[in-house]
């Protein structure tokens, strides 16, 4: 009798674990914070994504098993971020230094910084991280510049239909230019 009850409990726990695991990934999202450093006026960028989503994307792109043990793990991640995230102003790319990344509790944090003094107004941001792999992927960029007389802050959203946004000083803080939409 005790064994039967124990087996039922064990099976229930396993089924709950399987169901939770399957449902755990119904949402695909990434967060990026963009701040202007008050001392050197460089743009500082911190990306946060689910590590296994990045790894699965790279495995699909490279057509090979990809995990932290892969000999090119760091290089592939850096190249992926540099290809799928960029800044520009007046049709000129803003050079970003790759500072590195770390994985904590299943989250990948990647760090970048502009190489020169900058400001956020009229900054054009391309963000296609994970969008081609996961059709339901939504990326949010939170930005702030508290260094000027009129602080600028807001959020931008990226998905399959919006891959490029512009930070503006208008009430919406984001351009709604039809040229920014990719159908």
Sheet with most strands: 6 strands, mixed
How far apart, in Å, are the first and last alpha carbons?
62 Å
Low-pLDDT runs of 5+ residues are 14-23, 171-183
Shape: globular
Q: Please state the average pLDDT score.
A: 84
Question: What is the domain total for the residues?
Answer: 1
CATH topology: Alpha-Beta Plaits
Broad structural category: alpha+beta
Instruction: Tell me what portion of residues adopts beta-strand conformation.
Output: 25-35%
The number of helical elements comes to 3
Describe the fold and architecture.
- The protein is of the alpha+beta class and 183 residues long.
- It has a single domain (28-180), classed as Alpha-Beta Plaits.
- 25% of the residues lie in helices and 35% in strands.
- The protein is built from three helices and ten strands, in the order αββααββββββββ.
- The protein has helices at 2-23, 51-62, 73-84, and strands at 28-36, 43-50, 85-89, 92-93, 96-104, 107-114, 124-127, 137-145, 152-158, 164-166.
- The strands form two sheets. A six-stranded mixed sheet has the order 5-6-2-1-8-9.
- The longest helix has 22 residues, at 2-23.
- The chain is globular.
- The model is unreliable at 14-23 and 171-183 (pLDDT under 50).
